[in-house]
Amino acid sequence: MSIPDLQKLLADFADRRDWGRFHTPKNLAMALAGEAGELAAEFQWLDPRESAEVMHDPAKAHAVRMEMADVLSYLLRLADVLDVDLDAALREKVAINEGRFPAE
Amino acid sequence: MSIPDLQKLLADFADRRDWGRFHTPKNLAMALAGEAGELAAEFQWLDPRESAEVMHDPAKAHAVRMEMADVLSYLLRLADVLDVDLDAALREKVAINEGRFPAE
Amino acid sequence: MSIPDLQKLLADFADRRDWGRFHTPKNLAMALAGEAGELAAEFQWLDPRESAEVMHDPAKAHAVRMEMADVLSYLLRLADVLDVDLDAALREKVAINEGRFPAE
Amino acid sequence: MSIPDLQKLLADFADRRDWGRFHTPKNLAMALAGEAGELAAEFQWLDPRESAEVMHDPAKAHAVRMEMADVLSYLLRLADVLDVDLDAALREKVAINEGRFPAE
C-alpha cells in the first residue's frame, strides 16, 4: 500500500472505535516515543553482531516487526492529523542533509 | 514515492557516505528512539488545544516536519537492514488489533 | 538511602548476576530510553486533569512507581559505570539554567 | 544533597519561574522521554568500546553529564508532583527483581 492508503486504513480503524478524541498531536507524539522505546528495548542487551542476527529467531523477529509496525502506525496517524506529507518531508530532509554532509 | 523507493533513496545516501558500518540494527533502533524523543519534545509543554494548532507557526511546523522525517528515515533504514516489509507488518498489526479491540 | 548507597545496591545486584558485561554505557543509555518510553506510555492517552489524578488508582499508581524506579535504576547504573556524580551534575545544570532562564 | 533536597531545589527553581502550570505529570513524563532520547543519542553511533571511553573527551563528557542531569531533574520533578518516594520505589523494585531473577 502507499503511505496515504496506509493512513486511510489507520484513520478508519481509529474512527470505528471513536478514538479520534485521543489522537491529539501531543498524545500521538507521546505514543510514538513510547513505541520507539519498546522497539529499542528489543536491542538493548545485544552486541552489534547479535543485533544483526536478531531476525534469525522467529519469535524475536515477530516482536521486532510488530514494534516497528507500532512506530509506523503512530507516525502515520500523527502525519494525518497534522496534515504532513511524510514523503515530501523525508525528501526535503534528505536534500538538507545532502548539504550538511557532502558525500566524498 | 513508495516505501521501497524511499528506502532506496536513504540506502544510497548512506552508501555514498560509507555509513553502512554505523547502521547496525541496534544503532538504528537507538537513533530512532532519540529522534522520537526529539519529536515528543516539540509537544511537551503544549496543552491539547495548543498541540492541535502547532502547525500554525511556520518555524514550529518546519521543526515538527523535519523531526517526523528523521523518525521515518531511521525506521525505513532499520526495515531495510532487517529486511522487514513495513507495509505487510503494519497490515498484520492492524489485523491483530482488529481482534484485540473489536469495533462496536 | 543516599544516591551513592542506591548505586551500591544496584551494582551489587548486577554483580551477583554477572550482568556487568551487559552494562556498557551504550546499553544502559538504551535501556534508560526504553524505560522512559514505558513510563511515558502510562500517560499517553490521559488529558491533563486525568494525568494529575493518575495515582488515585492503586494498580496504575503501582505501575507508575515501578516504571519510575526502572528509569532511576538505569540512570544510577549509567552514572556508576561512567563515574558521574549525579548530585554535582544536577546542581551544575541548575546553575547553568539560572543564567539561561532568569527568574523575574 | 539527598533526593528530597534536590527535589526542593528543583521545585523552588520552577516556582520562581511560575512553571508549575506546565509541570503536569503528563508533561513531565513526556519531557523525561525527550531527555532520555537525547542522552541515548550521545551513544547511538558508538561501538561498545567507544561507549566505555566516552568520558575521555571533555566536551563529550560534559554533554553526557548535562543530559543525565536533565533526565534526573524531570524524574525528580515527576516524583515530586506525584508524591512518589523514589528511594522506596527503587528498593521495592529491587526486591521484586530479587524474586524474578534469583542470583546463582
TrEMBL record, chains A, B, C, D:
Keyword field: Hydrolase
SUPFAM superfamilies from the UniProt entry: all-alpha NTP pyrophosphatases
Classification via Gene3D superfamilies: MazG-like
Coiled-coil zones: none
GO biological process, one term: DNA protection
GO cellular component: cytosol
Single GO MF descriptor: dCTP diphosphatase activity
Protein name listed in UniProt: NTP pyrophosphatase (Non-canonical NTP hydrolase)
Species assigned in the record: Allonocardiopsis opalescens
